[in-house]
Amino acid sequence: MSENDNSKLFNTMRHDEPEIYLVAKRIADCVDSQLDTNSNDDELFYLMIYVKRIVNKINTQA
């Protein structure tokens, strides 16, 4: 998958799942603050995928 494809998927997911984006962004901000790093959109996209997986798992168990 090209960087451009990831960028399109990131923007689509950010638009379609704003709550997931906000949670992932807060997690990334916390990690960046603690480790003095700077997460990029690619890393944030993968974090969004994992947050979405957790939410889906919780929703299927309810």
Write a structural description.
The protein has 62 residues and is an all-alpha fold. It has helices spanning 3-16, 18-35, 41-61. The longest helix has 21 residues, at 41-61. The radius of gyration is 12 Å and the shape is globular. The termini are far apart.
Mean pLDDT: 93
Approximately how much helix is present in the residues? Answer: over 70%
Order of helices and strands: HHH
Largest sheet: none
The total of helices stands at 3
Query: How many strands?
Result: 0
Radius of gyration: 12 Å
Q: N-to-C terminal Cα separation, in Å?
A: 34 Å
Tertiary shape? globular
Which secondary-structure class do the elements indicate? mainly alpha
Report the portion of residues in β strands. Answer: under 5%
Name the poorly predicted regions. Answer: none
